[in-house]
Specification:
heterodimer, A: 385 residues, alpha/beta, three-stranded antiparallel β-sheet, 40% helix, B: 224 residues, D-Maltodextrin-Binding Protein, domain 2, six-stranded mixed β-sheet
């Protein structure tokens, strides 16, 4: 076999058809919500995109261009779109509603090959700081997951601003804060609890931290109510009001049934400043989509603007949908012709194609095993006699 | 319970303790659960399915969704670094991870060799001590390595210390305490939340009771 670089995959015809069908569904729906699709280059300068993108450094593919400057294969689309929104689209009235479907590149250290190149569809809503914008992108994400045919759609919502304010309010030092955040990020509740026990703080604060880590197991209404208890400061009240409003908006969007509020959710991307969310579905696998509010990213391109959005990984969606490749076989007719009948055969094929059918024209002279070849078609017409 | 939960159980050392804990939590396991040779065992009356896996494989089954939930030793979790929720310290099968070697072994030199089943954990430990060591991965009978001069010391789990003693080795440094943990697949946790939270709740109660009933002096054998 001819080896491919680590994490690089071929898309064979059956999977390609399946992917294409799903992409069409998603892109149609995004278009119906009024988002404009756009594309950016696969290569960007490291100093513009590599540095602001939230993907950790060692996941970047780096190359040198002809002048010897370091370029990276884009690891995400949010940073390139922010770059465009801050420059080429500067004159457009706000808010901007932009969308993309693009291949992203992240190196993989583990063998066994998780993909290092994968397609993602996403949207960015730039210039609207309200909960309405967050509710819109979450509702759109739910709609996409449902329209793809996914069963069991669930969206988990957390709030980076809350976690930061809460930990800062309790922890004595930045070290304690980042240690606790690390355990949240590693999904290690046991480590979190053990670390709390080891900290030198009042029992009351320890109880707050335990209440926080246990809040994941509460119903949404209780989780919301907990915010005020956990963080009684004015900042806590602002976040409470914001999340309550968001929840009401999601109810009115008709998607609150698949929402799970989880205050302990921490995203692996560190440019998020407010709400963060992840989409799940199917029966197993990995998180399919993720997003959140990033109000500080655009400022890095000298155009401070609030923004929110999400990305949906097509490979993971297709995996979660199960074996969808079988449903995507297409009806094709094969017309086999001899030299003598070629004119008749071409006319016949043209007629069928005009009617919208897929037709393969195959000269009999070019076939070694006609019987085996014909098996792959839904019908065969013989012009060889 | 509405949806069936798949639970990955570690065969061997932890299995008995884990089965006992599940029974305490009110899960009706089949009578021959501990003695069966089947790899998949159903407990239909509580809509749970158990898969019996090699302990080091439990995090893998759970990470990739082959099982929703698993019971795994902290030693295995530290080594695997899987993307799973570690939700509960079950307090069972307590032991600790330690550095051990011959009593008269020479001081650490630049070519110090460490034999272990836990290469990542061992390398991380010595790196944190600011020492560079050569880690040799073995899959069993680690105690052999210093005896025949393959390595200067070993990193392994120690429960009673008997194996070390019988082979003339002594414990030199304790790395960390080990107990078994309840781990959950991140997607399952979201999709079967009600059922999984219910199970976590029950097990949390049982663990608390066991801790309270535990003899203060011998904090180790929680359930015996």
């Amino acid at each position: 076999m001819f080896e491919k670089p680590l994490g690089m995959r071929d898309t064979l015809p059956a999977l390609y058809r399946c992917k294409q069908r799903i992409k069409n569904i998603l892109n149609d729906e995004i278009g119906k919500w009024g988002y404009d699709f756009m594309a950016t280059p696969a290569l960007e300068y490291e100093e513009t995109i590599g540095k602001v993108s939230a993907i950790v450094d060692h996941h970047l593919f780096r190359l040198l261009d002809k002048e010897g400057r370091t370029v990276v294969l884009r690891p995400d689309m949010t940073a390139p779109i922010a770059r465009v929104a801050a420059s080429s689209l500067k004159e457009q009235p706000l808010p901007l509603r932009l969308a993309y479907t693009a291949a992203l590149f992240r190196t993989q250290q583990f063998e066994g090959g998780r993909p290092a190149e994968f397609e993602q569809t996403g949207v960015e809503l730039i210039g609207d700081a309200t909960a309405h914008a967050d509710a819109e992108v979450i509702a759109l994400m739910v709609s996409l997951l449902k329209m793809s045919g996914l069963k069991n759609v669930k969206v988990v919502i957390g709030h980076t601003g809350f976690v930061n304010a809460f930990l800062a309010d309790i922890a004595d030092s930045a070290d304690d804060e980042s240690a606790l955040r690390w355990f949240l990020y590693k999904k290690n509740d046991v480590g979190f609890r053990e670390h709390v026990y080891s900290l030198n703080m009042t029992d009351e604060n320890k109880q707050r931290l335990f209440m926080f880590i246990d809040s994941r197991r509460e119903h949404n209404e209780n989780t919301l109510a907990k915010i005020k208890t956990l963080l009684p400061s004015s900042h806590g009240r602002v976040i409470y009001q914001y999340l309550s409003q968001l929840y009401l908006l999601l109810e009115n969007h008709g998607v609150s049934g698949c929402i799970d509020l989880d205050l302990t959710l921490v995203s692996h991307l560190d440019y998020y400043t407010g709400v963060v969310f992840q989409g799940y579905g199917g029966s197993k696998g990995f998180a399919i989509s993720s997003g959140g509010r990033y109000d500080e990213l655009l400022a890095k391109f000298n155009r401070p603007l609030p923004a929110t959005g999400f990305g949906l990984r097509l490979d993971r969606l297709i995996e979660a949908l199960g074996n969808c490749q079988g449903n995507d076989s297409i009806n094709k007719t094969v017309v086999i012709y001899s030299e003598a009948n070629q004119e008749k055969a071409f006319k016949y094929a043209e007629e069928l194609r005009k009617q919208g059918q897929s037709v393969v024209l195959q000269a009999q002279a070019g076939l070694e095993d006609a019987e085996a070849f014909v098996k792959h078609f839904s019908s065969a017409v013989d012009f060889s006699l | 319970m509405a949806q069936e939960l798949t639970v990955a159980m570690p065969k061997g050392r932890i299995f008995q303790d884990a089965a006992k804990l599940l029974r305490q939590a009110g899960i009706q396991l089949p009578a021959d659960f501990e003695n069966s040779r089947k790899l998949i065992i159903s407990a239909e009356n509580c809509s749970m399915k158990f898969i019996l896996a090699k302990p080091v494989d439990v995090p893998t089954y759970v990470e990739y969704g082959g099982a929703d939930i698993g019971i795994a030793g902290k030693d295995v979790l530290m080594e695997a670094e899987s993307d799973v929720y570690e939700v509960l310290d079950l307090g069972i099968s307590a032991c600790h991870l330690a550095v051990a070697g011959l009593p008269d072994a020479a001081k650490r030199s630049s070519a110090y060799k460490v034999a272990t089943k836990y290469p990542k954990t061992a390398a991380r430990y010595f790196r944190e001590q600011g020492e560079q060591v050569e880690v040799i991965t073995l899959n069993g009978s680690i105690e052999l390595a210093p005896l025949i001069g393959l390595a200067d010391c070993i990193v392994d789990i120690v429960s009673t210390g008997r194996t070390l003693k019988e082979n003339g080795l002594v414990e030199k440094e304790k790395i960390s305490d080990i107990t078994s943990r309840l781990i959950v697949n991140p997607v399952s946790y979201r999709l079967k939340k009600a059922d999984i939270d219910q199970l976590i709740g029950k097990l949390t109660e049982v663990v608390k009771e066991n801790l309270n009933g535990m003899d203060q002096k011998s904090g180790v054998e929680v359930l015996k």
